[in-house]
Amino acid sequence: MFIHKISSRKISLPLLLTIFLLPVLPSLAEKSSVPSPSAAPLELALLTQPNGAVMTANTINPEGLTTPSLWWEKENSENKLLDNWIAYPANETEPARVDLIVNQQIWNLLDYLERYDFVNRLGSSARKDGYNVRVFNYQQNLLATYTCNFVTSPTSCRIQMTNQSRLRLLRSF
């Protein structure tokens, strides 16, 4: 068993993982500064028939770079994990968001930390353009979110992963 020594106390790796995986819930007096992820449904039909200001990985802007600029991440994603995306502009009720669609087979091969890293990298990239991120598979299952409060300075963000992602990490030990 792997033992890590912290300030003369021995803590086992399973204990650290248990602490790491437990959600930290805000107290009743604490108000989260990051809004909840969008509850809007994933609109897969927009992948083949985008409308108006909605952008996808297949949308080309003849006037210059299209935001959010996720093409580089798509081309460089490990094992073609990122398959497509749908970017929605901000409206009066929600900030702009990008729905990422991942290859479920590749997603299933990743452990929790690899999934978290993927969501964090693409969420950070989209955040620069003012977008929140949701990660789905083609079965429209929500796998993860990267949500920010763009009103605060500095911008505060939160990543949420599904329980399915957390359980995979526990089984790997």
Task: Describe what this molecule looks like in 3D.
The protein has 173 residues and is α+β, with helices and mostly antiparallel strands. 27% of the residues lie in helices and 24% in strands. It has 5 helices and 8 strands; from the N terminus they run E-E-H-E-H-E-E-H-H-E-E-E-H. The strands form 2 sheets. The chain has a 6-stranded mixed sheet with strand order 3-4-5-6-7-8. It has a two-stranded antiparallel sheet with strand order 1-2. A hairpin with a 5-residue loop joins strand 6 (132-136) and strand 7 (142-149). The chain is globular. The termini are close together.
Give the beta-strand count: 8
Helix content: 25-40%
Count the DSSP helices. 5
Strand count, sense and barrel status of the largest sheet are: 6 strands, mixed
Report the sheet-strand fraction.
15-25%
Bulk shape: globular
- pLDDT averaged over residues: 75
Which runs of at least 5 residues are low in confidence (pLDDT < 50)? Answer: 1-7, 25-30, 165-169
Rg estimate, integer Å: 18 Å
Structural category = alpha+beta
Cα distance, first to last residue?
A: 10 Å
Provide the succession of SSEs: EEHEHEEHHEEEH
Give the spatial strand order of the biggest sheet. 3-4-5-6-7-8
